[in-house]
Design a protein that fits this description.
The protein is mainly alpha-helical. It is built from 17 helices and no strands. The radius of gyration is 21 Å and the shape is globular. The mean pLDDT is 87.
Length: 435
């Protein structure tokens, strides 16, 4: 495959992912805007903390998407149609087991969350309301992890894009209807999410039964339950799970430390973090392209194309990060006003504009390496880099800096965390990826 052809393949996979990923922060922005225009800042905090609970909870199972993509892409590269199908079957089985576990433990999760999260009584009360509604989206969310991972591994990102667009458009429309039209507050935002996730699941099933019917071979028990494949499946996914949990716990820790600084600072940080999410989801379009192509070339044992893919991914990553940096630097207040029109929020955010500007160039390497490591199923290495970054860099940095520099210390620690992720994966790549 020539450089031009490989670039076309990257863009063919990345652009649909970018489009679908843009709808995710757009949904978060709409939720923040809806709550930011209510009569109190506590609603922004409640949505932020409620979202944190689900991010942490689902991180335990998000390995299903990453692992499914890696295994499926490698089977695709090797031309193994039987393993392609059974990668999906294994993930759906895990999704059903996970659904039973999540719904059975929802009371415990709520109790533990309230013990760990910090916020005013009013913020926590609204957080509980949000949680008790949104928890019923769990079956759809977990199954969609499996479907989206499989479609990406099959080198098709158009279907996940369609699923995401439909899901998030429905979610946005219902949230506006329930909040502005029916005055349901945080309940309306949560209910819109629940209904939309099931709509997305229906779309995923429809594509499977139409576009990929020929891949739905009968389940072969000896393949599904083959000891070596199951051992590899669970070993890789366990490492991906640890990595995902540490990543989301780090963000949850950031949110929780923000809450300790007061409702106003929590609201400011939740708004500023939206710009981290906007960029991360945008860059993840290329990371997902990396997952598909790196998995494909790893399965085909084509080291030349693998190395070329990684180089081109990082070129694209830099070309994405630079304009984001310039936009964040040029119009910080304008971006913040899109989320909240409350003057005190805009004013209190001003000292922290510099961190908003720094996010793109500091973080893009970590996002892209994630895709490369997932495609290569280099699970142990990505786990170890996350352990180093979260426990040896972010946590001690925040504990050292926050007592002296407050919220500035928290942001510096978070950016150091992202630098450590990118640097550690770069140093470990020769052994973990190019083997």
């Amino acid at each position: 495959m020539s450089k031009e052809s490989l670039n076309r393949s990257i863009l063919k996979l990345a652009v649909p992912n970018i489009i679908s990923n843009i709808t995710v922060p757009l949904l978060g922005l709409v939720d923040m805007v809806l709550m930011g225009h209510q009569d109190s800042l506590v609603y922004i905090g409640a949505i932020g903390l409620g979202g944190t609970i689900f991010s942490v909870m689902y991180s335990i199972f998000s390995f299903m998407r990453a692992g499914t993509t890696g295994f499926t892409a490698q089977a695709y590269g090797a031309g193994d149609r039987t393993e392609m199908a059974h990668s999906l079957y294994r993930s759906l089985c895990i999704a059903l087991i996970a659904t039973i576990l999540v719904l059975s433990l929802q009371g415990f999760v709520e109790w533990l969350s309230l013990k760990l999260l910090h916020g005013s009584e009013e913020v926590l009360a609204h957080t509980v309301t949000y949680f008790r509604v949104r928890i019923w989206a769990a079956p759809a969310v977990l199954c969609l992890y499996a479907f989206n991972g499989w479609y990406i591994g099959m080198q098709n990102t158009t279907i996940p894009m369609t699923i995401a667009i439909v899901t998030n458009v429905v979610n946005i429309a219902l949230s506006i209807l329930f909040v502005n039209g029916m005055g349901m507050g945080v309940t309306g935002v949560a209910l819109g999410t629940v209904i939309a996730q099931y709509v997305g699941l229906a779309v995923a099933l429809a594509f499977l039964l139409t576009k990929f019917r020929n891949y739905l071979i009968p389940i072969k028990k000896e393949v599904l339950l083959q000891a070596e494949k199951l051992r590899r499946f669970f070993q890789v996914n366990a490492d991906f799970m640890i990595r995902s949990i540490l990543l989301v716990l780090s963000i949850a820790y950031f949110n929780n430390q923000s809450a300790k600084l007061g409702d106003d600072m929590l609201a400011v940080n939740m708004i500023l973090m939206q710009f981290f999410y906007i960029f991360s989801y945008f860059t993840d379009g290329f990371a997902y392209a990396g997952e598909a192509l790196v998995g494909r070339f790893t399965g085909a044992h084509d080291q030349s194309q693998l190395k070329r893919t990684v180089k081109l991914l990082f070129l694209w990553g830099f070309l994405i990060a630079l304009p984001f940096t310039l936009l964040y630097a040029a119009f910080p207040d304008a971006f913040i006003r899109l989320i909240s029109d409350q003057p005190e929020v805009v004013l209190q955010a001003k000292p922290y504009h510099v961190y908003m500007m720094a996010i793109p160039l500091i973080t893009f390497a970590a996002f892209l390496w994630d895709g490369v490591y997932i495609g290569a199923t280099a699970a142990r290495a990505i786990r170890n880099t996350m352990l180093i970054s979260a426990l040896a860099v972010f946590l001690p940095a925040s504990l050292l800096l926050m007592p002296h520099y407050g919220n500035h210390g928290l942001w510096i620690a978070f950016l150091l965390f992202m630098v450590a992720r990118g640097l550690s994966m770069t140093l470990m790549a020769r052994k973990a990826i190019f083997r």
